[in-house]
Specification:
By secondary structure, this protein is α/β, with parallel strands linked by helices. It is about 50% helix and about 20% strand. It contains five helices and five strands. Strands 3-2-1-4-5 form a five-stranded mixed β-sheet. α1 packs parallel to α2, α3 packs across α5 and α4 crosses α5. It is globular and about 40 Å long. The two termini are about 20 Å apart.
Length: about 160
């Protein structure tokens, strides 16, 4: 099964694609979608959606996982983040993907083993788990972590069914 993970953002939108075969997780791709910061928000959202569509066409994931929005102390920032998240979710839904959402705490717990882990710890564990030659960029690592979180949940569920 191929899983695409998304770390949404209006200025930097991370994505990561992994393959899960049994208990083996392998890296397929990751990156950051970076719209021109000078564009108005609707144009940046459109850019993100189009770039995400290209990744979906290239990798044909079976399922998508997206990081949930956390409570932000700046309401305007939270609204913009929500719009970017919405653009990504609509793009994934239009592609016919089943979408799973995970909180930052659950993602960190699945990847690092500690729900309050620091960003650097997540990046390091993503590198280790996927046997990457170098630590991925922060947003890409977060997106891969979201995908790993879903893959981990699949393995736990399948083990539970066997017992």
């Amino acid at each position: 099964m191929k899983i695409i993970g998304i770390d949404p953002g209006s200025r930097l939108c991370g994505y990561g694609v992994i393959r899960v075969e049994g208990s083996t997780i392998s890296h397929l791709d990751n990156g950051v979608i970076v719209p021109d910061a000078k564009l108005a928000l609707p144009r940046r959202l459109s850019f993100i959606a189009e770039a995400l569509e290209e990744r979906l066409d290239e990798f044909h994931p079976d399922v998508a996982s997206v990081e949930e929005t956390f409570v932000h102390r700046f309401p305007k920032s939270a609204l913009v983040l929500g719009q970017a998240r919405g653009a990504a979710i609509v793009t994934l839904a239009r592609a016919g993907l089943e979408i799973h959402e995970y909180s930052p705490t659950k993602i960190k717990q699945a990847v690092v083993g500690y729900g309050r882990a620091e960003k650097e710890q997540v990046q390091h564990m993503v590198k280790v788990l996927l046997k990457l030659p170098e630590i991925p960029e922060e947003n890409a690592a977060d997106a891969l972590a979201v995908a790993i979180c879903h893959g981990h949940g699949m393995n736990v569920q399948s083990k539970m069914r066997v017992q």
